[in-house]
Amino acid sequence: MAAASMMMQLHGSWFRPKNVVCSYRQQQSIVCTLSFPNGDVTATATARSSGVGTMSIRCFRDQETTESATTASAAAAEGDFTVVMKFGGSSVASADRMRQVADLILGFPDENPLVVLSAMGKTTNHLLNAGEKAVCCGVSKTSDIPELTLIKDLHLSTVSDLGIPLSVISSHLDELDQLLKGIAMMKELTPRTKDYLVSFGECMSTRIFAAFLNSLGSNARQYDAFDIGFITTDDFTNADILEATYPALSKRLRDDWLAHPAIPIVTGFLGKGCKSCAITTLGRGGSDLTATTIGKALGLREIQVWKDVDGVLTCDPTIHPRAQPVPFLTFDEAAELAYFGAQVLHPQSMRPAREGDIPVRVKNSYNPKAPGTLIIRGRDMSEVLLTSIVLKRNVTMLDIVSTRMLGQYGFLAEVFSTFEDLGISVDVVATSEVSISLTLDPSKLWSRELIQQARELDRVVEELEKIAVVNLLQHRSIISLIGNVQYSSLILEKAFHVLRTNNVNVQMISQGASKVNISLIVNDDEAEKCVKALHYAFFESNDVPNSRPGVGNGAAILVEN
């Protein structure tokens, strides 16, 4: 789409764009970034091919968000939902933060949003800690658990500050008291009970926020995800969403909207077991998955994930403060980033968005004017070298050696059937003629308690030693280089030069199945030094081919007028 062939109406005036950057093509649609001759207007637009017209445009002038006067989206014009907006715990951590989120949501009157919320602040951690302390503190002492006091103080002060009735959450606080007493009486905290316990965070945050929106004169309706069709497996603490969820969600939310339009405020992170009918959780960060599932179920125009950082970054800013925002990602890149440790997204959250071909925009609720990161099906990778560097700490590496592998078949199947029998997933794998090297993540796969993790590791080694010699290496880290693996030789040449200069030995390398990821295994105590050095080499040094993170010099096609 040439800029010279386009005219756009902006607040009643017509402009011809100066530059058009086409970031993603899908059938007859093109998502573009437009800049205008006066230099103070840019726009993100979804446009049809010539002659059909614009579907929706949001423009930014002088860093203040305004809505285009061209047309509202077709869905909004018909009164249907247009976008799902998910806000994490830090975004709704206090009464002030909830006010800002409400302003942000209500600042787009032409949108018909659905809202997904996490628990307030650190509430999920406090609930888990309170449950563990209740196991051994005795029934009479549960009211003295410090984390319970923190939870009550936060939610009661928020309700008071926002000027909404205490009755909004009083029954949940009473029920939480009784649950902790029950845990203390039984002296155990099962995975099923743990999911029930942590659900109080989302159930209370959504009720508070919905009541606050209603107090402002906006129609809002609170929903518990487990009551509106989020059907999951019965894998407590890490359940998977089942296909039956999508039609159930669509019917319930649309029927309610048609009967009485109101902004849905949905609990993130939660579901209902298909057999047990008990509350389940989707794993840490599961509210992202809630949002993308709703997006696919309703066929929305866009999924927005609002965090406390300016989108997806080139590395963890707590490791290296010069991390830069990544403007564009593919679904594959985002999935690899999430799985290998990036905290911005849930590892499974990209699947529904990819299946529904719905763009995901990651934004900063503390800095809403920042452009954030747009995650889409495909982009021009021809000049992208590296997109981001991700660090996954405290993994366990296993070297499995057996001459039975040499020229034989079935040995790999035997090894992986052992992991299947033990219910353990593998992160990274590399093989040679007589050995297999692989990594495991104890913090995600096994018990929360370190002592129990050690016992389960011993069991893994014991089973594998029946068929091979096993060497267990703990305190390792995976450094994942996410980018264009077509340039793997250039990426590895630069990476190994950096690591050699810093006297770091790579103990394992994995590349192949993924087209966007090369993983290196190093010692934990060298990992942060490696990330800093690699980031400087790939993103800060002047001799790096891609000067803009995740974009490169031309990864998004620039069409000059």
Automatic annotation (TrEMBL):
<comment type="function">
    <text>Involved in the first step of essential amino acids lysine, threonine, methionine and isoleucine synthesis via the aspartate-family pathway.</text>
</comment>
<feature type="domain" description="ACT">
    <location>
        <begin position="400"/>
        <end position="480"/>
    </location>
</feature>
<keyword id="KW-0028">Amino-acid biosynthesis</keyword>
<dbReference type="GO" id="GO:0009089">
    <property type="term" value="P:lysine biosynthetic process via diaminopimelate"/>
</dbReference>
<keyword id="KW-0791">Threonine biosynthesis</keyword>
<comment type="pathway">
    <text>Amino-acid biosynthesis; L-lysine biosynthesis via DAP pathway; (S)-tetrahydrodipicolinate from L-aspartate: step 1/4.</text>
</comment>
<keyword id="KW-0677">Repeat</keyword>
<comment type="pathway">
    <text>Amino-acid biosynthesis; L-threonine biosynthesis; L-threonine from L-aspartate: step 1/5.</text>
</comment>
<dbReference type="GO" id="GO:0005524">
    <property type="term" value="F:ATP binding"/>
</dbReference>
<keyword id="KW-0150">Chloroplast</keyword>
<dbReference type="InterPro" id="IPR054352">
    <property type="entry name" value="ACT_Aspartokinase"/>
</dbReference>
<dbReference type="InterPro" id="IPR001341">
    <property type="entry name" value="Asp_kinase"/>
</dbReference>
<keyword id="KW-0067">ATP-binding</keyword>
<dbReference type="InterPro" id="IPR001048">
    <property type="entry name" value="Asp/Glu/Uridylate_kinase"/>
</dbReference>
<dbReference type="InterPro" id="IPR018042">
    <property type="entry name" value="Aspartate_kinase_CS"/>
</dbReference>
<dbReference type="GO" id="GO:0004072">
    <property type="term" value="F:aspartate kinase activity"/>
</dbReference>
<keyword id="KW-0809">Transit peptide</keyword>
<keyword id="KW-0808">Transferase</keyword>
<keyword id="KW-0418">Kinase</keyword>
<keyword id="KW-0934">Plastid</keyword>
<dbReference type="InterPro" id="IPR041746">
    <property type="entry name" value="AK-LysC-like"/>
</dbReference>
<dbReference type="GO" id="GO:0009088">
    <property type="term" value="P:threonine biosynthetic process"/>
</dbReference>
<dbReference type="InterPro" id="IPR045865">
    <property type="entry name" value="ACT-like_dom_sf"/>
</dbReference>
<comment type="similarity">
    <text>Belongs to the aspartokinase family.</text>
</comment>
<dbReference type="InterPro" id="IPR002912">
    <property type="entry name" value="ACT_dom"/>
</dbReference>
<protein>
    <recommendedName>
        <fullName>aspartate kinase</fullName>
        <ecNumber>2.7.2.4</ecNumber>
    </recommendedName>
</protein>
<dbReference type="Pfam" id="PF00696">
    <property type="entry name" value="AA_kinase"/>
</dbReference>
<dbReference type="InterPro" id="IPR036393">
    <property type="entry name" value="AceGlu_kinase-like_sf"/>
</dbReference>
<dbReference type="InterPro" id="IPR042199">
    <property type="entry name" value="AsparK_Bifunc_asparK/hSer_DH"/>
</dbReference>
<dbReference type="GO" id="GO:0009090">
    <property type="term" value="P:homoserine biosynthetic process"/>
</dbReference>
<dbReference type="GO" id="GO:0005829">
    <property type="term" value="C:cytosol"/>
</dbReference>
<keyword id="KW-0547">Nucleotide-binding</keyword>
<dbReference type="GO" id="GO:0009570">
    <property type="term" value="C:chloroplast stroma"/>
</dbReference>
<dbReference type="Pfam" id="PF22468">
    <property type="entry name" value="ACT_9"/>
</dbReference>
